[in-house]
Every structure is written in structure tokens, then in C-alpha cells.
Amino acid sequence: SASPRACGRPRPERMEGGGDAAAAELARRKEAGALHDRFNLVFIPPLVTLTALSLLRPTETLHLVLSWSVMAYILMDIVYHFVVPHCQPGPVRLVTILIHHFIVVWLVLHPLSEPRHLHFTAWATIVEVNTLCQVLNKAFKMNIFSIGFLVTWFSLRLLWYPYLAYWFHNVLTGEGLQVFGYTYCQVVGSQVALCALGLFWSVEFVMGRAKPKDAKDKAA
Question: What 3-state DSSP class applies to 136?
Fold first, then answer.
């Protein structure tokens, strides 16, 4: 984003190269983040396509392919975040992303081990439409994707995901599974935790938007 220095003001002399080091670190983070964006641009569209197919033409094979695809994507992304942690803007985002990913791994293990629930994956990965909007917005800088990201964030992450936790609860208790038993915590507990992370990131986003512009530039 633009700053006074970028608008033609003379730069003060740097005494010990601290500004150069900070600029280099910022460039390093941006490069790692850009590589991660390209990774998502490759893998998120197929996941969304598989989700749509699993919902519109549901078969056990499609549900299984989607579930394993989600697992593979999440595991690759976990490895990337451990190898290139600076792809995220700071430690809080890094830790919460990794927590999110490990929760997803535990959640997806359930339908993979219980074929009768393989369709759970497609109902959960509807939220990847939001990720797709984010990826396309970063790649093409089009206003429609920016709007789509905000609309799907609210409708999918803040409304659909809490409803899905309730739906999972009804399905599992309807099958006679014990509330707060292992499977219940794995499915419903994980879904509730994902909802909590979505709420946390929403608050983080709103607080970030409320920061003065100079503070945003320093945090970038």
C-alpha cells in the first residue's frame, strides 16, 4: 500500500541498515505468501469442483475421492507451513492456520474410517467456495471476487458452519452415538472448533480494518 515515502518524500538516512533488513524480511514474506497463493490456485479449484460433483451427483466413489483429496491438500499445506512459516503475516496467523489444519485432518479421518458418513466431507468443503474467491481475488484483482469473498465468508463460515455443527449433532445423536464420546468430539467438536477459528479470524479482520493506515503499513 502507498505510504508517504512512496509518494516522493526524501528518505532519511538509515543508520545501521535496520530499514534495509526490515524491507528484505517483508519481501521474503511476500514472496513466500505469493508462492502459497499459487499453490492454492492450483489445488482449490479442483477441490471446489469435486465438492460440487459430490453434492450434485453423489456417489461413494466421488465422496471418497473428495475426502482423500482434502486430506492430501491439508497435509501438503501443513508441510509447507512448517518449512516456510514466513508465508503468513505473523505468528498468530501461522499458529491458528496450523491448528485449523490439524483439526481438519482429525475431522476428515472420520468419514474415511466410516464410509456411511463420507458425504460429511462435501457438506463441509462447501466452505472452500470462500477460499476460491480469496484465491481468485489475489490472482486477478477483480472486485467481483473481493465481494464474493466477503459474502461467502459471512454466509459460509459464520452461518453455514455453525448450522453444520448442529446438523452433525443431530445425525450422530440420531444414530445413538454418545454426546461427548470420541466420535462426537471428533465430528461435532471439530466443527465447533472450526467455527471458533472463523469467528476469531473475523474479529482479527475487523480490527485490522479499523487500524490507522500508518499502523497497517508498519504491520505489513
Answer: helix
The DSSP string of 34-69 is HHHHHHHHHHHHHHHHHHHHHHHS--HHHHHHHHHH
What contacts 124, CB < 8 A, 6 or more positions away? 107, 164, 191
- In the three-class reduction of DSSP (H, G, I as helix; E, B as strand; rest coil), residue 5 is classed as helix
Q: How far apart are CA 95 and CA 80, in angstroms?
A: 13
List all residues 6 or more positions away from 177 whose beta carbon is below 8 Å from its beta carbon: 183, 184
Nearest Cα neighbor of 218 from 7, 22, 17, 21 is: 22
Q: CA 157, CA 11: separation in Å to the nearest integer?
A: 43
Q: How far apart are CA 136 and CA 174, in angstroms?
A: 40
Cα–Cα distance between 177 and 170 in angstroms, integer? Answer: 10
Print pLDDT tens along the chain (220 aa): 433 444 444 444 444 556 788 888 888 888 998 999 999 999 999 999 999 999 999 999 999 999 999 999 999 999 999 999 999 999 999 999 999 999 999 999 999 999 999 999 999 999 999 999 999 999 999 999 999 999 999 999 999 999 999 999 999 999 999 999 999 999 999 999 999 999 999 999 898 877 665 555 544 4
Q: How far apart are CA 194 and CA 145, in angstroms?
A: 23
Q: 8 φ, ψ to 5°?
A: 105, 0
In this structure, the chain runs to a length of 220
